[in-house]
Amino acid sequence: MKTSDFYYDLPEELIAQTPLEPRDSSRMLVLDKTSGRIEHRHFYDVLEYLNPGDCLILNDSRVLPARIYGIKEGTGASVEFLLLRQIENKRWETLTKPGKKAKIGARFIFGDGVMTCTVVDVTEDGNRIVDFACEGSFYENLDKLGQMPLPPYIHEKLKDRERYQTVYSRELGSAAAPTAGLHFTRELLKKAEEKGIRIGYVTLHVGLGTFRPVKVDDVTAHKMHSEHYEMPVKTADLINETKQNGGRVICVGTTSCRTLETVAAREGCVKASEGWTDIFIYPGFEFKVIDGLITNFHLPESTLIMLVSAFAGLDHVMNAYHNAVAEKYRFFSFGDAMIII
Fold it and tell me: What is the side-by-side strand order in the sheet with 198-204?
């Protein structure tokens, strides 16, 4: 299977630069994964496609304001640090620009001395391992100094940082938002529960590797990045009860999907679990848990469009994407939604 099989032509003006208000006013393409039939609706109609006894699985990870700017001690050079992964306490793996300014031993100052960091190592792929130092809580200082790490295709400044968070986010740790969940409002989730749709949460901290392009021609040669996940007991029990009672498990986002399918593959069943996953889902993958998927429209040739194609069929998905382009849907993180059932 070739990476080019997942290419589609997207006019730049269809890349959403700002979120819509209210959240659930986005358009929603409905795709029947068996027949390929397409409908065009709005996200506030989503409950029409869910039944009492179904469950929604949401990723409750919260995005860190992970982009911070420091001044190099001694030279005054400005360097951008993007927090990728917490190693321990205040030690982080970071992406730095320009990297040549951040050699081992270099020290940087943030916010007039509120926080500092020292580069202690360089990874094989050029990322910097840094030790931060500050008075008080690291996360409280980061909240004051940091900016949201919006994807590179978004050029507009985000006026409200909470619009790059889901309304149910609570577990701090992502470098990018689980964007399928951005369409939900608290009111819509309440209506879902009133209809008899149960809601469960998993945590998968989204890494910037989610934006990493597939650079090989053969899809199977691509190496996935690792992300930390957690499946709580309560959610595992909910999924198993839903299945036993004949309901459907609907994942909100590719991150929730990857979490459920990782647990099922590793444990042989759905049960409480946590760890790191680098699961790569592309056509030919046998899904063990999910019955439906709510997702956004993803970049051409990305691992995310490959996952969606594995679930609904490559031909159906590519036809849906071409249809969405023709209908001028809004694409990517702040864009419109798709439900596949």
Answer: 38-42, 27-31, 337-340, 292-296, 249-252, 55-59, 198-204, 227-231, 273-277
Residue 186 has a pLDDT of 98
The more confident residue out of 226 and 116 is: 116
Would you put residue 115 in left (φ > 0), alpha (ψ -120 to 50) or beta? Answer: beta
Mean pLDDT of the 41-66 span: 97
Domains of the chain: 3-63+160-340 (3.40.1780.10), 67-145 (2.40.10.240)
Give me the amino acid identity at 131. Answer: D
Please give the single-letter amino acid code of residue 44.
Y
Confidence of residue 89 (pLDDT cuts 50, 70, 90): confident
Q: Kindly give the pairing relationship between strand 27-31 and strand 337-340.
A: parallel
pLDDT in tens, 230-258: 999 999 999 999 999 999 999 999 999 99
Question: In the 3-class helix/strand/coil scheme, how is 148-207 assigned residue by residue?
Answer: CCCCCCCCCCCCCHHHHCCCCCCEEEECCCCHHHHHCCHHHHHHHHHCCCEEEEEEECCC
Rounded to whole angstroms, how far apart are CA atoms 43 and 41? 7
Q: Are strands 78-88 and 61-63 parallel, antiparallel or unpaired?
A: unpaired
- Mapping DSSP onto H, E and C, the string for 267-318 reads HCCCCCEEEEECCCCCCCCCCCCCCEEEEECCCCCCHHHHHHHHHHCHHHHH
Angle between helices 314-326 and 303-312 (to 10 degrees): 120
Half-sphere exposure of 103 (CA within 13 A, CB side): 2
Cα 96 vs. chain centroid, distance in angstroms? 21
Name the average pLDDT for the chain.
96
Q: Is 240 left (phi over 0), alpha (psi -120 to 50) or beta?
A: alpha
